[in-house]
Amino acid sequence: xxxxxxxxxxxxxxxxxxxxxxxxxxxxxxxxxxxxxxxxxxxxxxxxxxxxxxxxxxxxxxxxxxxxxxxxxxxxxxxxxxxxxxxxxxxxxxxxxxxxxxxxxxxxxxxxxxxxxxxxxxxxxxxxxxxxxxxxxxxxxxxxxxxxxxxxxxxxxxxxxxxxxxxxxxxxxxxxxxxxxxxxxxxxxxxxxxxxxxxxxxxxxxxxxxxxxxxxxxxxxx
Length: 222
Prior knowledge:
Blueprint: H1 2-5, H2 9-16, H3 20-31, H4 33-36, E1 42-46, H5 52-61, E2 67-72, H6 75-84, E3 90-94, E4 107-113, H7 122-132, E5 133-144, H8 149-171, H9 175-185, H10 190-199, E6 203-210, E7 215-221
Parallel strand pairs: 1-2, 1-4, 2-3, 4-5
Antiparallel strand pairs: 5-7, 6-7
Helix pairs in contact: 3-5, 8-9
């Protein structure tokens, strides 16, 4: 599925979110500036797709020597990420988020933008993030949510009707853009996911809504 949408993935992300997705990633990167600008920081961006959050993290690191790895299980997505950027501070690795090829306590920061809900097992994903984080390391999961009230009704109409139709027209592929609203609808509400994060062994778990709760950043510390 992800291979089929890779050619138009970036265009549709920006088009369907009215470019707000760039702001969400930029804000997430700024949240972790204190880690990114620390000497010799090691950062893992899970489910990195075509690398937009990885690149936002590198920009936020400025001239610091943070090493950032973007990992995804879709070869086609990583090919497009590699076209955007390569270099000594940014690498791309094909890997499964539920079975990462890294030893314990490898990273100061693990991030994931709009990919966590695609994991086959959320609890296993959290345990794997915790495993590869160093003590006092942090994780940040940027994910879609569902706003409430009148805005929520309008959002659901757009998300379930308009977005899939536009996605099919632009990408030429039907399935993925019907999958997107379905995957968001079954994703745990913030309090439930925060409970799962705490149960996995994290502390200081919090959720910060973006754009009235259309998206939000889950943050926690090992």
